[in-house]
Predict the structure.
Amino acid sequence: MTTGQVELLGGELWPTLRRHTQARIGLGRAGSGLPTHHRLELQAAHAAARDAVHSPFAPDVVAAALGGEPTVRVRSAAPDRLTYLQRPDLGRRLDPADRAHLPVGDWDVVFVVADGLSSRAVHEHAAAMVRATTALLPTSWQVAPVILAEQARVALGDDIASAMGATMVVVLVGERPGMSAADSLGAYLTYRPKPGVTTDADRNCLSNIRPPLGLTYELAAGKLAGLMGRARESGATGVTLKDDSDAPILNSSVQK
């Protein structure tokens, strides 16, 4: 064992590793429990996660951040937050009264901003993701007004896209908070969704969108726009559509 390795094992190992992860590692002990400051940090993270789940969705915040883009507000069939948490099935269905307000057209894509399990993530990141992604789409694409959906789960996008006549749907949703992140945004892409029939295997997901600690808007939007283009060409999303944006580019002169 080298001198450097001995020094790491002597006290520098955990600080070095912590620089590469947000996981709680090497916290030490105080008797049979955690040191007080680490225990307080854990309690604060738990409180932040609970707040993210229960904080109300503010559609006005997202609409303002979109800078004048047309929006339509809808709700799921879950009448309140408690019902939403207890009845996931209701969060996947559109409120019948709101269906009549949805514009119908020959849309290539509709973006649905859904509160999900972290309205904080939606307030902080959703508008920037919509702007970054639409900026990369061909100008010929018909993009529907952004739908702001309350008490919504991912599959609510299937119902919305079907009602609007959209070819594909991108659901930007607040992800389930963890003890390291309460503001993580997910993006779910589905081609020709069918309510009650489409499954998670038919979707592509980008997770942990939350700069600077997660995916940046530019990187996530590039991946998402690339997937949307390939979905349009292949007529499918999900397990048959792969994100190869990080694959190495081979020189065409290399012999096969």
